[in-house]
Amino acid sequence: MSASDAETWQTLIDDAARLQQALLDAIARPLHTGAGGLDTREVLQQLAADYVRDPQRWQQLQAAWYREQMALWQAAAAGEAPGTTEADRRFRAPEWRQPYFAWLSQSYLATSRWLTAIATHASLDAAAKRKAEFLMRQWVDAACPANFGWGNPEALQLAAQTQGASLAQGMRNLQQDLPKGMVSMTDERAFEVGRNLAVTPGAVVFENELMQLIQYRPLTASVHERPLLMVPPCINKFYILDLQPENSLARYAVEQGHTVFMVSWRNVPPDMGRVSWDDYVTKGVITAIEVAARICGAKKINALGFCVGGTLLATALAVLRARRRNPVAGLTLLATMLDFCDTGELSVFIDEAYVKERERQFADGGIVQGRELAVTFASLRANDLIWNYVVNNYLKGQTPPPFDLLHWNCDSTNLPGAMYAWYVRHTYLENSLRVPGKLTVCGVPLDLTRLTLPAYLLATREDHIVPWKTAYAGTQILKGKLTFVLAASGHIAGVINPAARGKRNYWTGGTPGADAEAWLNGATSQPGSWWKHWRAWLAAHGGKLIAARATPGGAGYTEIEAAPGRYVLEKATPLDMAQ
Question: I need a surface site. Which of 66, 125, 418, 572 has the fewest CB within 10 A?
Fold first, then answer.
């Protein structure tokens, strides 16, 4: 190897180490900025204190691990198979049955069980235990031998078969990902917003510094007199609701005879760091409601919010209700939290110290980088959304298959620091949104219990971002006629489940009340997608049918540009790998 070749390979090795360290830091300390968040030292100190309180229990766990390791060593020494790892998909390939790698995988799994048991059986309060369990799982997932070239027989065999070509391609894949600060989850060349994503015909009919409002062209001769406004989450692009024609919820609603408007949030630049939660409510949601109503000449509209978009939408309606305005006939909330009683594993990062640090950091402006948030959510399912791609992309030199949901997932947006700090304090930390009159938003006391309009609430059963029982808690806040539906699958796949495919199932008709589990016990499972069920509910609130107008706009609003508009094309600030 020449000196130049050696220097090149050393640079690649250094780059790989930087990326892996950045991933480990981001997983172990999502959203961490120097204070607060998930404090590793604090967790270790609490576990150490637990050992002092009850050393016998810890010694029992360690003895069990020791016996298991000795059995594996004895089996390996005798030339016997140490057991099976087929239950774990990371070790299912036949290469893992070779004696050394069989022992390596079994030893890792035994150690994983031991470390997991330490956190599970620790005598800690609920918050501390959740932190310990999460941190332990991140360590266990990151330490899997399959994640390293020396410990992955599949990658080693592929490298031998290709005479090193797979490793060379893996290094090229790594170099391409380094500037992004995130592992590629899909073949990004396969998709382009406006070409094969977000292609439902329409036009931008209004815009301000915070959002563009898209109106889709009708696909039916007649439409319901009340339009439907969709408010997507502001931490990702709107086209999760308008992916490809066959799985676009926006297009589906248009096909059912609704005039659909879509909020396209701005990917805020650094000079918009002072934009507040109130600004999102007024310049975003309330403005969109007013424009949609004026264009259609409707006294009332229907409105849908997804995730934090639903939280913003409910907040806006409560503000309008305090002003004695009720512009929405039917409200749809998809995977939305109004009562942040249990925020799942995201709660391990948000404590008083963390929020104070973020408030200090953003006191004079600044933004939360989109990649930072993307890594945070990926860390909740690190094996599926990070390490799986590390192995395939870098160790095996493969290109991930095209997948529109993952393309959207990686197309994150920046958030204003002021808005973000307000949000995490008053929702995740203090859970104040649900308390009547505790918060003042847009100059009025906020009271979600005064919302008496009909509402359709959807949760997803395997949701790792909005736990379904937390979404169900919203039924105890809203006071109108409520329809609660539980869909199978997770936060995204459970919502984006096209009716035409007939996949999965959903539950309806449970026993109303405060107990989510009691609701589920009394519910009936229905086959297929919840979209058809929602279609019937929405039609009942759409008003009479009128002739569709082919041209977007009206009442003084005209086409600014074709959908999907400029804002959705703006890219988030890359995560600084040097941090």
Answer: 125
Q: What is the largest CA-CA distance in the chain?
A: 84
Q: What are phi and psi of 381, to 5 degrees?
A: -135, 60
Residues in the chain: 579
Distance, in Å, from the CA atom of 208 to the CA atom of 239, rounded to the nearest integer, reads 19
Q: What is the pLDDT of residue 75?
A: 85
Please report the domains of the chain, with CATH numbers, ordered by start residue.
9-188 (no CATH), 202-379+404-569 (3.40.50.1820)
Residues 304-357: tens digit of each pLDDT: 999 999 999 999 999 999 999 999 999 999 999 999 999 988 888 888 988 999
pLDDT of residue 30: 40
Tell me which of 307, 341, 410, 442 is the catalytic residue.
307
576 pLDDT higher than 50: no
39 vs 454 pLDDT, higher one: 454
Annotation says 234 is catalytic? no
Query: Could you tell me which residues are beta bridge partners of residue 415?
Result: 368
Distance in angstroms (rounded) separating the CA atoms of residues 63 and 276: 54
Per the rule left: phi > 0, alpha: psi between -120 and 50, beta: everything else, 571 is beta
Which residues have a Cβ under 8 Å from the Cβ of 34 and sit 6 or more positions away?
357
**Three-state SS letters, 25-68:** HHHHCCCCCCCCCCCHHHHHHHHHHHHHHCHHHHHHHHHHHHHH
* Helix (H), strand (E), coil (C) string for 83-133: CCCCCCHHHCCHHHHCHHHHHHHHHHHHHHHHHHHHHHCCCCCHHHHHHHH
